[in-house]
Structure formats: structure tokens, C-alpha cells
Amino acid sequence: MTRPVYLVDGARTPFRKAQGKPGAFTPVDLAVQCGRPLLARQPFHSRALDLVILGCVNVIQDEMNPARVAALRLGLGAEMVAFTVQINCGSGMQSIDTAYRYVKDGSHDMILAGGAEALSHAPLVLRQSAVEWFGDMAQAKGPAAQAKAMAGLRPEFFKPVVGLERGLTDPITTLNMGQTAEVLAHRFGIDRKAADTYAMQSHRRLARAQKEGWLDEEVMPAFDEDGTVHDHDDGVRPDSDMAGLAKPKPAFERPYGKVTAGNASQITDGASWVIVASEAAVERHGLKPLARIVDSEWAALDPAVMGLAPVLAATPIAQRQKLALDDLDLWEINEAFAAQVLACVAAWDDEAFCREVLGLDGAFGRIDRDRLNIDGGAISMGHPVGASGNRIVLHLANALKRQGKTRGIATECIGGGLGGAMMLEVA
User: Fold this and answer.
1) CATH class of 177-214+293-426
2) Annotated catalytic sites, by residue?
3) Boundaries of every domain in the chain
4) Could you say which DSSP state residue 426 is in?
5) Do the bridges between strand 51-55 and strand 82-85 make them parallel or antiparallel, or are there none, so unpaired?
């Protein structure tokens, strides 16, 4: 026996673009900034929660197990169990999926599940040769040994490497994430114009959503120590056009690459939470769910084509639920790169790919652009990796509710050759 599971509410911070130095908020700061107003508007005492799960990739040294630190700062009590999950870009969705399975099997009734990331706080890392030199210096005994070790000092030892750059490079294929998107662009014939057009639409859609107030219940203002109010996703460029997007040079494969700084996700800080609850908890506290979590799936494939993982993760859900493409009203595909999203759309519409890779009788179909990322995505608002999977699930629920639609799937590619997907139905 399994129980219905509901997403009853959620909130996130504005996603703030990294500015070349540590931002105003750490991952836990961000989690607390949106967690407090979310919990304050609930009809139940926050200690009615059974568990806290937080996705975070770049955990900083002062916040080990950020889920626990955030739970304590949110006032959930010393008795509240809290743990952190990490599956790269899928971490925020993994927190929801773990909560979903706990509630479905009856072991828990109500869980706070989130994701937080402050990429601007990614550490600077010493080169391995510098680390070895410092080790030699520490072990040198006596003036002669110290002088010998000192002679090995090199100027480059004082030039650290940005840890994020190394983290975005796959250790198996040695390709960085942008290069994997170039592989897909080549495989599915995605040209620069198509990628730039998609990016322009992402910015314009987010700008419209902000102007229309469609994100007001979802985005909670964040207040830094100086009293500055951060109340919107600041990476959006409302005046984005094709002329401007044509200017940046290819970022990874010059001179003919399709991926640029303009059509890729932004390096960003942000956090997101959702509350996952059982039917009993919904009735007990008089809650009004946003949506029911119907199904979820994780997939894996060659890291060199990791951007196709949404196709492998979402398709089994549609098959299990006996749904055709037209039965799904909305899609959220995390916009790691425009070329990557467009490659997924092309793969689902490719009969040979669907037969050979997905085991379907023919093409799944082509997702209507009016159903996909209708309010923009990571290209325009940014991709705080530990939070993005949580945000797309939350936003899918809100978008379905706003448009009076029934069901949708949120999915994402994950560095390392993984993907996650989750299906929602309006409650």
C-alpha cells in the first residue's frame, strides 16, 4: 500500500547572479531567507514537520551538513533530524524525491525539502604542485631542509584555480559541461541561431513573468546585512535580442561552437523549499495542496552526452502513466544550455532515436514551445546547481495552478551523465 503525496506549498529566494566575488549570502543564509516566510504562512507549527532535507553541492566549510544548520536557524528545534543530499544539478529535486518516497511509504507525514547553492562562494583551490610544496615545507626539519624546500617555490603557486571550474569538468570524459552541450548540438544539428533564439525567449518570458506578478507568491525577498533588499532574479535581460546574442564568441569550441555566455545558464546564488505532505497531514492541518506528486524517475547515460538525460528520465514516467505527449500540459526542462534543451526536444521528435534508445514504437513527439519553460529558466534567471531541481518542481506546480492545467513534468540533466524527472498533477 502506498499513500498519495502532495506538494502543499513552496518558496524560493531571488536568484542572484555571481559578481566575481562572494555574494551576500551563504547557502544556509539563502535557505533561511526563503524558509522563514514559507513556514510563517503555514497554519501549522513548524515543529509539526518530521524531517528536513536540503540539496547542496558546493557546501562551504563553515556549514557542514547545511540542512541541519538551516533547520536550527529556522527554529525547528534540536530534535529535528536534517540531512543534506548531493547529486550535482539534481540535488534540489533529490530532496523532494526522498521526501516523496518517505511520505508514500508511510514513515513520515510532512517534510521540508529544499535546495540551496551559493556559487559565488565556490572556493579558490591551490594547484596540486603548490599543495605538495606546502607539505614539503611543513615537514622540513632544520635550516638546511627548510632552505632546500624553499628553493622549490614557484610563482604559479600563488595563482589559485577556481574550484567551480574544476567542478564543472567531468573527471571521466574530461569534457566540461559546455563541451557536452556542443556534442549534442552537433548530433542533432542545433545551430547558433536556434540556440540564441531560445535564449532570447527565455529572457523575455522571465521578464514578462516578473512584470505580470506571476512569481510573487513563489519568490521571497532576501535582506542582506546592509539592509539591501533583493527582490527579483537579477540575471534577466528584458531587452535581449538576436543582435546582442550574436556578439559573444563561442565559449568552448572556437570558432564554430554553438554555446556562448549568452545562451548558457548563469552562475548564480539561490535557494528553494517545498513542503511535502501526506493526505493525513493535509486533512489534519487544513492544507490546500498545489499539486500531487505522481511519479519520479532517475536515469544515467554516457557523461559525454549528459544533456540528453531528461529524455531518458521523463519518458519512463509517461510510459508508466500511459500518457502521450499531448496528455502533458506543461514541461520544465532545466536550461543548462539552450543547445541542450533543444537537443532533448529534437531527440523526442526523432523516430530512430526513440526506437533505438527509448524502445518506443516511433517518435514520442515534439514538445510545443508554448508548453515548455513558459516563464523562462536558468538561461535568464541562473542555475544555482543545488537549488534548480527544487525550483523547477515548485514552479511547475505554480504554473499548472495559474493556467488551470492538469499535469506536467519537471526534468533536468545532471553533470556526470545523470538525469531526474518528476510528474505533478494539480490537486
Assistant:
1) alpha beta
2) 89, 383, 413
3) 177-214+293-426
4) E
5) parallel
